[in-house]
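hey can u check if this looks right to u? its 290 residues, i copy pasted from the old doc so theres a chance i mangled smth
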Amino acid sequence: MAASLSADQVAAYRRDGYLLPLRAFGPDEAAGYRAMIETLERETAPGSLPRPLNQFFRVNGHVVLPFMAQIALTPAVLDAAESILGPDLLVWSCEFFIKEPGTPKVVTWHQDLTYWGLGETDEELTVWVALSPATRASGCMRFLPGSHHQRILPHRDTFSADNLLSRGQEIAVAVDEDAAVDVALAPGEMSLHHGRMFHASGPNTSSDRRIGAAVRFVTPAVRQIVAERDYAMLARGSDRSGNWIDVAPPTAPFEPGAMALYEQILRDQSSALAAGATGTVGLYAASPPA
């Protein structure tokens, strides 16, 4: 195994449902990825893509943007994920969460696995990599230690304009804020968290953007149980399960074949990701906006 975590670190993850901080790559590499994001933002003309650029940043960007796939396949990221999940790793998604300076945007308390159609599995892991400083002031994540030992609990949709989540979802139980821990990370550092972990983040009151990449890993044994089919990128080891349609990393930004695949994946995943919503979930709309 190429696993990099110690037995004590793995035990801490299993006990608490999270682990941090770990090093994914150096600050210069983090700055380089940030520059790629901001170059695309400057140079992508409105209407030049079939969907807004932020759509690709937020949903399955690894399918159409090589540098997002590269972040997901970073050796230190894979080593940490392998320590928890074992040698056979699939990337289910990679997305950027960006909070502008001074923004009131927040992420309410929720459990990721509630809306993914993957069930109550323990064979899933999110690696969150900071590309800019993630501090309490900039709206870093917060975790409630040990909350992953609970099952998936009821959630409600708010569709709040100030909520970065796709439907403004929030867990429908009281959360002890005083027991939460801040996930403060320097550029190039990463945290790991379980899909049932209660987590949230506050507004960005700093003078800089808060940019993070969230990479969602599963093992081949995990199955999509709501949508008819689902897709993943083999990151390490092998997949003989037949549960997933294999996705290869793109070779160029927004290449036609990758764009067609992106739309197919969104059509197939939308029945799970928007299941039970009380309104339209724009990020998972199965066809581009007119």
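The helical segments are 7-16, 27-43, 53-58, 66-72, 75-85, 256-273.
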